[in-house]
Design a protein that fits this description.
alpha+beta; 16 helices; RNA-binding
RNA sequence: GAGAUCGUAGCUCAGCUGGUAGAGCAACAGACUUUUAAUCUGUGGGUCCUGGGUUCGAGCCCCAGCGAUCUCACCA
């Protein structure tokens, strides 16, 4: 089986060899990396590495059996200190990175960190015997395992008294400063591993993110949704309005786009008979980067046959409130809630930046028209009023542009800031139809579409609608878009295959998208998306 | 795209009106059997982001560039 050629990025020189699959692999040597060579502590640690080798120990060890987490080890100690002897309760074996080291002669206290937390290790010459000399070689940043009895010190710190240990991995570069951690934002993002090892708060955010996504999947599976994966490389980037990234497939000699939305493929699955379907995965949009936008971001998108906007609203509210409740309980286990429940009803409060968001359902519901009227004194259903409002507020394209587009601009400029001031999630409903080419229109008021967006702290968190399943209307809408918009706006590209799928019949359905990164931001009190994306996109270092 | 702020030791940060580059942690040498950011004694460590300019003299002032953060703009 042929292997794809792999190349490691970076400024290092490459040595190319031919492996037995007759495929070229590149390996980089550390020799060319000036920043490493110039670091004097690197040389000191290289010397230490040799000492391990001279002691007959491979500084890059192998598998370690019988490990428990530091959290489990800690739990082996009885809650009452006196019930476990200070110098020896149950036997345990733990492993982790050495984050603190206090050498006081014939006794060394180390603090090791694993993904569950931290634990103090007592390394005493009296207990460890001859191996103590080797243990003295351990330094900050090394990864090691320790066996011993769980006890405590006279100050009450739960401690594993090591009777055996091993070096798992030697660290050749020093870890970040032990007390202040790593605060340089650029290094935190570019070398996230340093952030994770030095800043427990950062680790906690990504653990929380993982838990949130997992709970979301559980929630959807409980409602009989089926998870799927649809193409990320599409020959037409549809389902949203955004500039796509372009790439090229050599064998097919064809340009492809990274998807900006999975929508049109998920709806094809509705046609195929998958009645409840969801996907949690990346979308890619070639647009600006700021505290709320990363070029690749994770979306939950789901479709439910025989449902509609109201169904999506119930699902969204239940899901978001449930996730927020769990998060609040986690936080409140550590510290009391920011505000006490006022009315005796269960309250779900989470801190966000300077304020506290109340996720207690039901969420507020406001119509697009009423928000537009309050903020811009414009009547959504009166084109003349919109035109006048656009002119009044100095929109450049007030004369020629479509009134729904103008209303959308006024809404973003004037109504969204007002939404940002609210400390509760808000459903904005009844969007102008011209802004919703994939949405079913309101039968009573055809100018409006059956769509909502959920705003929290001024962020668009969710977007949902009653799906348009009439192929004739869909084709006409695509056609109108095609006529009116620029080439680079991908909604303007007619997806004939999708329209054909609709002709076979797509059940009436509700559809929903939730921005996972933004949801995690809200639930973990992060005001920048870069703090909830492990490796956010930054400019390459020159 | 515009503005503001920032870039100094491995890390966290000082640096006065422009006058020989500083601290803590980390490192190195040593002491220490209950520490908790251990402590104590001693030592070494710098492309002050890069390139120009002004000046007798620039970490500091000026210009340009690179990178970052935030705000605004763009983004249905």
């Amino acid at each position: 089986m042929p292997h794809p050629a792999r190349r490691r990025a970076g400024p290092l020189p490459f040595i190319t060899c031919v492996c037995r699959y007759n495929t070229q692999f590149d390996f980089c040597t550390p020799a060319g990396n000036a920043t490493v060579i110039d670091n004097p502590q690197y040389k000191d640690r290289m010397a230490r590495l040799e000492k391990w080798r001279l002691a007959g120990i491979d500084p890059y060890g192998r598998r370690v059996d019988g490990l428990i987490s530091t959290e489990q080890a800690r739990a082996l100690h009885s809650p009452n200190l006196e019930d476990t002897p200070h110098d020896g309760g149950p036997q345990a074996r733990v492993a982790g990175r050495i984050t603190l080291l206090r050498d006081i002669g014939k006794l060394i206290f180390m603090t090791i960190a694993d993904s569950s937390g931290r634990l103090q290790i007592g390394v005493a010459k009296q207990i460890l015997g001859e191996k103590f000399t080797t243990a003295k070689l351990l330094e900050l940043g090394d990864i090691a395992w320790f066996s011993g009895k769980i006890g405590h010190t006279k100050t009450g710190e739960i401690t594993l008294w090591a009777d055996d240990f091993g070096l798992a991995t030697k660290a050749l570069l020093p870890p970040p400063e032990k007390f202040h951690g790593l605060s340089d934002t650029e290094t935190r993002y570019r070398q996230r591993y340093l952030d994770l090892m030095a800043n427990p708060q950062s680790m906690e955010i990504f653990l929380a993110r993982s838990q949130i996504v997992r709970d979301m999947r559980d929630f959807l599976h409980a409602r009989n949704f089926m998870e799927v994966e649809t193409p990320m490389m599409q020959s037409l980037a549809g389902g949203a309005a955004a500039r796509p990234f372009t790439t090229h497939h050599h064998a097919l000699d064809t340009d492809l786009y990274l998807r900006i939305s999975p929508e049109l493929f998920l709806k094809r699955l509705l046609v195929g008979g998958i009645e409840r379907v969801f996907e949690i995965n990346r979308n890619f949009r070639n647009e600006g980067i700021d505290t709320r936008h990363n070029p690749e971001f994770t979306m939950l998108e789901l479709y439910e046959a025989y449902s509609d906007l109201a169904g999506m609203m119930e699902l969204t509210q239940t899901l978001v409130a449930q996730l927020a409740k769990k998060r609040a309980e986690t936080l409140h286990a550590k510290q009391p809630p920011p505000t006490p429940g006022a009315s005796g009803l269960p309250q779900i409060h989470l801190p966000y930046g300077e304020r506290v968001i109340d996720f207690t359902p039901p969420f507020i519901k406001k119509t697009y028209a009423e928000l537009l009227w309050q903020s811009a004194q414009v009547d959504l259903l009166d084109p003349a009023s919109i035109k006048a409002g656009a002119a009044r507020h100095g929109l450049e394209n007030a004369r020629q542009a479509d009134t729904d587009v103008l209303a959308g601009e006024l809404f973003e400029r004037l109504a969204e800031p007002a939404l940002a001031a609210l400390d509760q999630p808000v459903f904005v409903v009844d969007y102008p139809a011209g802004l919703c080419p994939l949405t079913r229109r309101n039968p009573q008021q055809p100018q409006l579409a059956e769509r909502f967006e959920l705003y929290v702290a001024g962020m668009e968190l969710a977007n949902a609608y009653t799906e348009l399943n009439d192929p004739l209307v869909q084709e006409a809408t695509f056609g109108n878009q095609l006529a009116g918009l620029k080439e680079e706006d991908s909604m303007a590209r007619m997806d004939q295959d999708f329209v054909e799928a609709l002709r076979y019949g797509m059940p009436p359905a509700g559809g929903l998208g939730i921005g996972i990164d933004r949801l995690v931001m809200l639930l973990t009190n992060c005001t920048s998306i870069r703090d909830v994306v492990l490796f956010p996109q930054l400019k390459p270092r020159s």
